[in-house]
């Protein structure tokens, strides 16, 4: 009895410690810790850092509002049902529409897994699935608006074009390899449930564009506005604090030396650094704006952003959970090559 009484406080202490460490991972906690570090180590720059981050966040506010309302509308109306229709018909048609709609799909990271699993179970070819997988992490309506607010519309639209092009590139590459038998039996056991309990695509779902006529859909709209608004606010606040610290403390000549050139080398370095150093899609644009201001070339910025999105933990988890290692390696390889090509093309155009 004495031993059991002694074990309970230890277990409770460990539980509190885990909860505390988990709380420190939140964007709000990271913002407080970063500003606290500036206040202790360099108090004279606390004001300039806070003003820079606040002004940048205020400038992006209109894009946040539009993005939140648009995403809530797409969810409430059930617009994701349109994506399933892209995987019907001939294989080439499926590849094209999968790449095109991948950037428009309003899926959260965990919804991608059961959606793709359902498509594979229904017999969708791996080529079309790969096209969707590669384009989906790169852009969606909120990311497009946030990127435009931080880096300008030319960069945002170029990234959207790159997303579709990368999807087509990956889909056609997989189609060619599958024809030669290199990708026979690529799938693991199909997973039909996601971490949030969402199922795969439903064949008979149809969008309801005037969603406000149905009470459940109005509730979805309100919930999505609150959830996505809070999500974007906390991540963008962290992004602009990090940008302020980057501009204040990282020497511009160092960045220019590493990724400031216009050749293949600097763009390839940016892509290679971007893959392991993934940043949230809403955090990356403000940070890249700071890097470009410090001397990073626009081609390197594009390569960094695309490579980082392809190698994000949710994107990789979606692929790893469903396919065998060789297909997973192919996904990463296609993403890296596509990122370098996109960076070179954008550098050439700009």
From TrEMBL:
Pfam families: ArsP_1. It comes from the Bacteria. Coiled coil: none annotated. Keywords: Cell membrane, Membrane, Transmembrane, Transmembrane helix. Its main location: membrane. It is found in: Cell membrane. GO terms for cellular component: plasma membrane. It is a multi-pass membrane protein. The chain crosses the membrane at residues 24-41, 53-74, 95-124, 144-169, 225-247, 267-289, 301-322, 328-349. InterPro entries: DUF318, UPF0718. The keyword Cell membrane applies. Belongs to the UPF0718 family. PANTHER family: UPF0718 PROTEIN YCGR. This is Permease. The lineage of its organism: Bacteria, Pseudomonadati, Pseudomonadota, Alphaproteobacteria, Rhodobacterales.
